[in-house]
Design brief:
alpha/beta
């Protein structure tokens, strides 16, 4: 089963939301064939804090809804991290702005719970290598995202 580690820096995300995220990411992991020993951390923070991370790591000095850091994603100067046998498969980190999630839920006309499920899945798919930099990639990622949300029963 997918191991999830939650860190709520806002002290506002209740156990029901964390349970939903755990369930939807476990569902997605099964559908995507993710090894059962995989680990993911999910951090909830404010717009200001996610803005700092976005500026530092992506060069975009504004808040955003979700950022993912895949452990196995490498830049040109990095060395691959290969887990030794028996060690967990750490996929990476998902960071979600609770403030932006609340605003987007209101903007899109659905509840906060649905938005948090959507954002966590979106971040998780990024950890698995999905992206939306080109139209083809976007169609593939958003299509898969919709399939998983629909099969889980978390629709708009």
């Amino acid at each position: 089963m997918l191991d999830l580690y939650f860190n709520d820096e806002t002290n506002t995300v209740d156990e029901n939301i964390q349970k939903l995220i755990s369930e939807i990411l476990t569902h997605a992991a099964k559908l995507e064939g993710v090894p059962e020993d995989a680990e993911v951390s999910v951090t909830f923070m404010t717009d200001l804090e996610i803005q700092k991370i976005n500026a530092e790591y992506r060069g975009i000095d504004k808040s955003t809804d979700v950022i993912s850091f895949a452990l196995e994603e490498m830049t040109d100067d990095e060395v691959a991290i290969v887990a030794e046998e028996g060690m967990p498969n750490v996929l990476g980190d998902i960071i979600i702005s609770v403030e932006t999630a609340k605003q987007q839920a209101a903007d899109y006309g659905h509840d906060f719970k649905r938005e948090m499920g959507f954002l966590s899945l979106h971040g998780f798919l990024h950890l698995l290598g999905y992206d939306h930099m080109t139209e083809d990639d976007e169609a593939k990622m958003f299509g898969r995202q919709k399939e998983i949300l629909d099969s889980f029963g978390l629709e708009r």
